[in-house]
Write a structure and sequence with these properties.
Keywords: Glycosidase, Hydrolase, Membrane, Transmembrane, Transmembrane helix. This is GH26 domain-containing protein. Belongs to the glycosyl hydrolase 26 family. The chain is 38% helix and 15% strand. By secondary structure, the chain is of the alpha/beta class. It folds into 2 domains: 65 residues, no CATH class; 260 residues, Alpha-Beta Barrel (TIM Barrel). Helix 8 links the parallel strand 4 and strand 5. Helix 6 crosses helix 8 and helix 10 runs parallel beside helix 11. It is globular, with a radius of gyration of 36 Å.
Length: 348
């Protein structure tokens, strides 16, 4: 027959054991070095005996200070708009030191370096500028500009054959990679070679282009880039960009120029989408040959958005060139520190 006294002793021992186990668990997670005292033990035993179902002694979570010491989860990565396949560059100025300064500011070397070269006297091939580019295997982009009246008439008549042939020979002797862009933004109305100015016309533009291109046929390191403005001014049927296309056999790359002047403020898509759609029909590599955004508090975001847009065209746009000059507007990527940071973050 069970002994009642014996049973009570066993139950008491088990109760003490359970109480001790719970208390050890509690104090193990405590950071308070003075907490484990005789007085506190007695108080807790009394409380537990009085209310054995209390949840006071459930294993506690780590104290708040310990939780705060845990590493925070990494923030979500921003959308990627970089691709190592795209070629990028800049017009940084007329001296190689301008390019070097630009590269030091943005933190990366360009693939393409642009320069403007006039025709005739003083318009010889830019050997001094180009020499270092060839050493670094950069592409030289030349905007070739005939800044004199009725240029197409004179070119078609042969007045500049000697000059063009010498330029072609110099380009061949240079041996580095060249993109030659004659008569850029020909569908605008602000240059001597604009198609609607004076005696110029789209037909004369095409004839002059084809004549020049034929003089470069034996120059394998030179590619011809065709660069209309993103919109035609005047916006008339006879001045649309397709009216100036010289023909597939005379063009290696098609491209477009466009700028956000800020009045009104235009996004990259608003500037370029229509022109890029038109250029795609030629089935040629496409370049943004010159673009930039004016200064202002929204410029940094414009840059970020622009390169996100370019990333959506990554199988279409082969390269882009930033026009980095304080001219009509402050087009420079460092017009403010936020814009510079946005540009650096976007580089391939």
């Amino acid at each position: 027959m069970p002994n009642p006294i014996y049973n009570k002793i066993v139950l008491a021992i088990l109760a003490v054991f359970l109480i001790a186990l719970v208390l050890v668990t509690k104090y193990r997670f405590s950071n308070d070095a003075d907490f484990l005292t005789i007085e506190s033990l007695i108080k807790d035993i009394k409380t537990m005996v009085k209310n054995p179902l209390s949840d006071q002694y459930t294993v506690s979570s780590p104290p708040e200070s310990a939780a705060n010491d845990q590493p925070s989860p990494s923030p979500a990565s921003p959308p990627s708009f970089k691709t190592s396949l795209i070629q990028w560059g800049a017009y940084a100025g007329d001296k190689i030191s301008d390019l070097e300064y630009f590269e030091s500011q943005v933190g990366k070397p360009v693939n393409i370096s642009a320069i403007f070269v006039g025709w005739g006297e003083g318009g010889s091939f830019p050997f001094e500028y180009a020499a270092k580019l060839r050493e670094q295997k950069k592409t030289l982009l030349i905007f070739w500009e005939p800044n004199f009246d009725a240029p197409y008439n004179q070119i078609i008549q042969g007045s500049f054959d000697g000059y063009v042939k010498q330029f072609a020979q110099d380009a061949k002797n240079y041996q580095g990679q060249i993109i030659l862009v004659p008569f850029a933004e020909m569908n605008g109305n602000w240059n001597n070679w604009s198609g609607t100015i004076g005696q110029n016309s789209p037909a004369k533009f095409i004839a002059a282009w084809q004549k020049i291109r034929n003089l470069f046929l034996a120059i394998p390191n030179v590619k011809f880039g065709w660069a209309p403005n993103h919109v035609s001014l005047p916006d008339t049927p006879q001045n649309q960009l397709e009216k100036y296309y010289p023909g597939d056999e005379f063009v290696d790359y098609v491209g477009v120029d466009g700028f956000n002047f800020g009045d009104p403020w235009l996004s990259f898509s608003e500037i370029f989408d229509s022109a890029l759609t038109q250029l795609a029909v030629y089935d040629k590599p496409i370049y943004i040959f010159s673009f930039a955004c004016s200064e202002g508090p929204k410029k940094a975001q414009w840059i970020t958005d622009a390169f996100l847009e370019i990333s959506t065209y990554q199988n279409i746009i082969q390269g882009w060139v930033w026009f980095n000059e304080n001219k009509e507007k402050d087009w420079r990527v460092w017009s403010d520190k936020e814009s510079l940071a946005a540009f650096k973050a976007a580089l391939p």
